[in-house]
Known about the structure:
The complex is a heterodimer of chains A (844) and B (132). Chain A has 844 residues and is mainly α. Among the domains of chain A are: 361-513, no CATH class; 693-841, Four Helix Bundle (Hemerythrin (Met), subunit A) (Up-down Bundle), CATH 1.20.120. Chain A has helices at 14-25, 39-69, 78-113, 121-143, 168-196, 209-241, 254-288, 295-310, 324-336, 338-354, 361-384, 386-392, 396-426, 432-458, 475-505, 546-554, 592-608, 612-631, 660-689, 703-728, 734-756, 766-798, 807-841, and strands spanning 568-573, 580-586, 642-645, 648-650. In chain A, helix 6 (209-241) runs antiparallel to helix 7 (254-288), helix 6 (209-241) runs parallel beside helix 8 and helix 22 (766-798) packs antiparallel against helix 23 (807-841). The longest helix of chain A is centred in the first third of the chain and has 36 residues, at 78-113. The model of chain A has no long low-confidence stretch (mean pLDDT 93). Chain B is built from four helices and no strands. The chains are: A mainly alpha (844), B mainly alpha (132).
Amino acid sequence: MSSSVEPPAPASTALRLHRQLVAIWATGPGLQRLAAVNHSVIGMRMMITSFAFFAIAGVLGMLTRVQLATPNAAFMDAETYNQVFTMHGSMMLFLFAIPMVESFAVYLTPKMLGTRDFAFPRLTAYGYWCYLFGATILTGSLLAGVAPNSGWFMYTPLSSNVYTPGVNADVWLLGVTFVEISALSLAMEIVVSILKMRAPGMSLDRMPIFAWYILVTALMMIVAFPPLILGSILLEVERAFGLVFFDPTRGGDPLLWQHLFWLFGHPDVYIIFLPMAAVLSTIIPVFANRPLVGYRAIVVAIIALAFLSFGIWVHHMFTVGIPHLALAFFSAGSAIVAVPTAVQIFAWLATLAHGKPRWDLPMLYVFGFFFVFVLGGLTGVMLAMVPFDWQAHDTYFVVAHMHYVVGGALAFPMLAGLYYWLPLLTGRTAVQRLSTVAFWLVFIGFNMTFFMMHLTGLLGMPRRIYTYHGNEAWNWLNLLSSVGGFIMTIGFALVVIDLVVQLRYGRRVRRDPWRATTLEWAMPIPPQPYAFASIPHVGAETERGAGQIALSLARGDGYLGFVRNGWQETLGVHITTGEPDQLIVLPQPTYLPLVTAIATAAAVLGLLFKLYLLSLVVALVIAGLFVFAAQRSGHARDYGPLPVGRGVSVPPHTEVADAPPWLALICTLVADGTLFTSLLFGTFYLWIAAPNWPGAVAPDPSRMLALGAAVALVLAAVAARGSLRALAGGGKAQGWVGLAMLALLAAIAAVVAMIAGVTPHPREHALGATAAALLSYIAVHAGIGLLFLLSNLLRLHGGFVSPRRLLDMRLTRLWVDYTMVTGGIALALVLALPSLVTLLGARP
Amino acid sequence: MSAPGRLESEYRGAEREGFPAGGRALPPRRLWWLAAGFGVWCSALVVLYALHAIGCAFAWPAATLRLTLVVVLLAHLVVIGWMWRNAARAAPEPAFGQTGSFLDAAIVWTAIAAFVATVLTFGPPLLLATCI
């Protein structure tokens, strides 16, 4: 990187500034497109990819409706039907819904925040490629006839080796986990960017409500995904290597899978709903011509909703035999979760009631949402009541409810948002007549399909059947569902035609066609790769409306209205006040995310085809790629405060305490800590609930090895602190780093020796398997700690670390501290297992 | 000044850049309070669910189990109640401006919501038969 610190000359015209910025920010042509890291490019790709999977999943849904339309249909056999309905659900949830809401967040959030890009553009790109490759593996399995066939929830023991001996379940476990890497990485990216990369002056109370929703959603994702990732890892390990976690004949428990799955699965409903509520909360005030009613109440409501949604997972398990008192906790929670949802609905209605609403296409879909979501919410409260749930469980009533809350609450706001922001994406508006017809077909078709399912369910139609006799009372209602499915599909096809026609013949629009106030409209449409030629200051000048400030921003009147050293510059701000506190220099386009994602795909495929050595080698390559990526970040010299325009100077992010990577590591550790907590929960759950634990051979872990591992972890943490202190004092840190590496190697050796001696053997009893899992957790984290330290050594050598630039060492210290704490807990639990087993023996 | 002390001082110096003139920046750690009330609600759920499972597995007498659960619930309510009282009593600091007022109000209301949610979610179920 160049090292000029001279205040740059302001660009004299908007056009010159535009050209200078495009030269720095644009993605290259041809194959260089594969190196894109820009949020607009990745967001758009993600949106298109998610809609492609929506189309595939929609076709699969139609196939199931064809099969179910008439009794004794020979359209599909049972196995094909199982694969088709499993993939319909899995694709809709994991390959469409979650990536689609993320694509909205990726494309829109930086623009609404008034910043130029996300904090970690390479991570955005890596997340996208992981999603694409993972989704391709899942889709490929369908074409090969080996798609997952145990339902989208993959309940054990159906998905265990005994009942699903082929690779079908492995495809789901590995493919979905691969896709979840994308979801998690983007969630961290979003949290850090919203907290640290808003336009100056955008304090928390001035943040668009959209950003609050997306922030809470991303935080939910960070906590919701790890339990499922853990469950998938444990089930795959059981299937591939025979370690027992879910097999009740060897001390496992199939219900553990249900707990881990629904710990993810229920919050996931809100992870999908909240971004769509964000869309509604953005659109409704624009069309009501007044600010949103109850901004503060909505912020409180979404925080409440986020927490409550985590505490009601057991309402998916009301029929598994949990005592009534415990069921009542979750029943009550499931009912009161309707309250914060209702707060939002009443806020939207009040906004419309107090405004002067104008009717336009997006509002049609808002109307569709209200109708569908209120119905879905009401049936949700019905299902929250245990006695009703027992009656309706495993019937089509549940299918109907789920489609109303997940399908309807997703599809209608999504289309409202799509029509609202399409002028931003394409610079054109929809062809009104076609869009209206499409809406009514989708609306009528949706309700015809899924409302009937309430009735068929109440009449006793069971879920997951591939055919029926034809003398059931619900036959004609079920046929109407299939007819409705086709009407809905025609509606969606019309939407697609409308979009294509719009791209070609739609009326061109000027900037800010809806007279909105959010900042995404304060830029040229379609947006340029740099988003804002200069960054706005949120305050009196932005309150005039987004369209009013666009020209002055294009002229460079805001912050960073110039170019410097060819850097991709944007601003970091104080988390609460939104005052600028750092200059963030972002990485430029690179093939590294693509290469790393290809390597990750190779590792996943290696696991799928049981080429474990290949997976291990590729995993080392991936680790090397991450270390390599770290070498290309930051600056090799100190700069001190640099001018950023409007008379403000701030230091680069490498020289401040709360740089984006610091917050990103905290988010990572929150996710990691959730996974660890889930593992602890799993251990205690099996202890208290699984059969065959009281009679198991009591384990006898080596106390000496455990002590050795604990001492080594403490030593590593001390050495990591020593390296930071030495460097801050102007000394050399290499010796401390080397000591930390040796300590972590010693910890790994001790833990591996403990795993080798675990009794009972992990393949024989869940007791041994949980001990092995806890110890493996320590080994993996110590291994990652080694990568941190290796990176430190390389960056110390390259001059990227100095007494002012200590971020690398602080990140390592935090990681090693975390490893020490979780390692201590894991070792203590392994040592306590014998006592826990003895305690079980003393039960009356 | 010790090396870490110098370091912290430098960090603070960097953070002070761009703070509003004459005012103080609302510390980011205050954001944790937005999650505190419902964090205690989560704790109540986990502890009550776990204790109930353990009590049933080890065949505790129904009265003992119920009393234990009630005590745990009350302890959690006391904590959230303290948070509510604390947040409601603290006068907004003028130096933190509109952002401070917004956050203070949000913290009070999340504490109230968490208190009500704790009462409604965990109170009535404790009247039911314990281990059926």
